[in-house]
Amino acid sequence: MNAKAKSNDLMDKLVSLCKRRGYVFPSSEIYGGLTSCWDYGPLGAELKRNLKNYWWNVMTNRRDDIEGLDAAILMHPQVWHTSGHVAEFNDPMVDCKICKARFRADKLEESRCPKKPSKTPLTCGAELTEVKQFNLMFKTFMGPVEDTSSTIYLRPETAQGIYVNFLNVKNSSRQKIPFGIAQIGKAFRNEITPGNFIFRTREFEQMEMQYFVHPDEDEQWFEYWRQQRWEFYLELGITQEKLRWHEHGEDELAHYAKAAYDIEYEFPFGWQELEGVHNRTDFDLSRHMEATKKDLSYRDDRYTEKFIPYIIETSAGCDRTILTLLVDAYDEMEIKGEKRVFLRLSPKIAPIKAAVFPLVKKDGMPEFAEKVYHELKKHFKVFYDVSGAVGRRYARMDEAGCPYCITVDGQTIEDETMTVRDRDTMEQKRMKVAEIIDFLKKKTTI
Ligand code: ATP
């Protein structure tokens, strides 16, 4: 199998596992689906919640210098004029005159011809139009009148909600610079060529943090945040060799940025951006200050001269991180002649932390196992399963990403100990319920 076929094969297997085990479903599937929109199923919703909690914990709860925010998706339309999105949030696009498909002009090599999916628009014989600019913002109307005066936008990034609340957060929290504001929320971009499952979609979630600093200290904080964000992915258990930095060259830098680095992951379809760390200078606050005439400059007892804060931004995609976690965790092994799938998610973010099984449906084992299940349920998301041979039950949980399986057997009835099997080492240790609770707390606390 060549590299491209292998990569498609892995993505196909992952998409199918996600559907089978309830991680991700195509949106509106019974109506034939909606391009590039996906729904998170029972396990996916849990994984996403765990990831968001984890990020929130690392970026706010563990620190004293970052406050949280949850701004509205719909904002004053003027915000998007001020930020430059109305004029400049464009992607270059081309149309094929033969099949009418539309492609991103700067991503032709990664695009597929809809009529000949094994070919790119560069090799399928397409007749491409001149490059045109296409604005990525979704528009809608507010109120009962549908005209230009009522046009508003679905936010294409969460960051602007933070900038326009800079004063509110500073005044209400009494934070002093340097400090940050963190936010998790939906963003919408009418991408010309979405694809690769949940990698590029038109509706997605971002986990963003904007850190406000003195202009003389921007470089040191930029380095600090690069380091912090890199460690975040390692702490999540992502393979270090599959992560790298990509520095934006002069031609890639956004007009407002002084420096930008992306953390990239080696997906089956190549190295791609997972998160951006940007030095946005004082561009955003200056623009909003100019447009609103509100004083967004800063002074305190340490910085006695007024200045407009510089912003160091860390901007991660939640759905892209989910895809990274799933790709990185996917593993196949042959056990006793049978091909088995393992989803080796870190216990910290795995949707189900442990499964409880009675070895057989007799001799008091189901009753004991149910009691243990209810006890564990008070602390963790756990799953109870009695159906099928115990080997099959292990296999189901391995594929669902559950890190621990707890089995009640004959010995349990005598001494109250159960086997706790580790998905990755396959080691089994006997423990009583109180020890299991301590053990799971240690392994799953974020
Ligand atoms: P790309 O070059 O992939 O389009 P970008 O540079 O436009 O991404 P940013 O505007 O920096 O991305 O957004 C920050 C993060 O938001 C990205 O690193 C990515 O994880 C996520 N993101 C951006 N666009 C999408 C999308 N269409 N679908 C899913 N996640 C996205």
Explain what the structure shows:
The chain has 446 residues and is α+β, with helices and mostly antiparallel strands. It has two domains: 3-76 and 156-326, Bira Bifunctional Protein, Domain 2 (BirA Bifunctional Protein, domain 2), CATH 3.30.930; 352-444, Rossmann fold (3-Layer(aba) Sandwich). The protein contains 13 helices and 21 strands. The strands form six sheets. A seven-stranded mixed sheet has the order 3-9-10-14-13-12-11, sandwiched between helices. A five-stranded mixed sheet has the order 18-17-19-20-21, sandwiched between helices. Strands 5-4-6 form a three-stranded antiparallel sheet. Helix 2 packs across helix 9. It is globular. The chain binds adenosine-5'-triphosphate (ATP). Adenosine-5'-triphosphate binds next to strand 10, strand 13, strand 14 and helix 9.
